Amino acid sequence: MTSINRKASTRQISPSHPLKNVTDLSPASFGVVMATGIVSLAAHLLAMPVIADILFRLNIIIYGVLWLLTMVRLVCYPRCFFSDLFDHSSGPGFFTMVAGSGILGSQFVVLSGNIPMGLAMWFVTIGLWFGTTYTIFTAVTIKREKPLLGRGLNGGWLLAVVAAESVAVLSALLAKHVGQSYELELNFLAFLMWLWGSMLYIWIISLIFYRYTFLLFSPKDFSPSYWINMGAMAISTLGGSLLISNATTNAPFLYSLLPFIKGFTLFYWATSTWWIPLLLILSVWRYACMGLSLNYDPLHWGIVFPLGMYAASSHEMAAVMALEFLRFLPPLFLYAALLVWAAVLVSWIVTLLCRAGICASKY
Fold this sequence. Notes:
Layout: H1 3-11, H2 31-45, H3 49-76, H4 78-85, H5 95-112, H6 115-142, H7 149-152, H8 159-175, H9 180-214, H10 228-246, H11 252-256, H12 258-289, H13 301-320, H14 329-355
């Protein structure tokens, strides 16, 4: 179904309908859950328990509200929902549901020690990962009308990587708490998801880098979603660090692969680090040099998530690989993540107030 069909279906909805705004719910809306969750986890790792707990409780509420709105949109406006799902540009945004669920599940395990809720979120995450992965990739493969690379590809495609790695992270965390009955199986699944995410990154980042360097790239093309270039490698670093930590327990196959896991974990961290200066330069070019607006976009949460994930993954990697000289990095990136999180939250609230008619104009 094309975006034209979606616009046609939207026009049929009365402007006064109380659920009108639900039709415009972004597929990437769960990015706020990803961003809030990882900042909470990073704050916990860096001994900021109050901030971690507040963001954890807030994330539970946001997650519930977003699922309610998503189900209303699916039931009341299925054409809009599936139009987005099958679209090259917007479809990958649905991977935020997977990653957000995985991050929230990790919060339950790490912050509250609530293993039953962590397991429940694990089942949700696994189901969402399987459904979104094979639905989206099948749809974009068999559809007859496909966009050119420059129009259909964006950084949001790397959310497929983040989704797989979120399953790896949650599985590795749960493996430490479920006992010997399923410890080996969860570690094996975590290892597989870690590799699958890496596989997807290699495929997708090659196309993205090609688009950067050989196709016309305007400031508008550099959407905040491209920060996932770095975030996808940061969460891969976190997954690898947890696998290294688990290798000393009841997972002998991980121990035998320890040099491989350590090498690739460091490679992922180095890749995520390489992206940071380029993304900062391109952001200055987009907003400061070319004067593009900073109006709220759900994709802005895609800037918060990589910053928070880099803080958490750098902390864990430095711990498991005894790289103490890197300890200065996690606090710096956590403070940056908190600052950007607060700025995006304020712009989100202002936008909601303007849509409700409280503000004089849109933010």
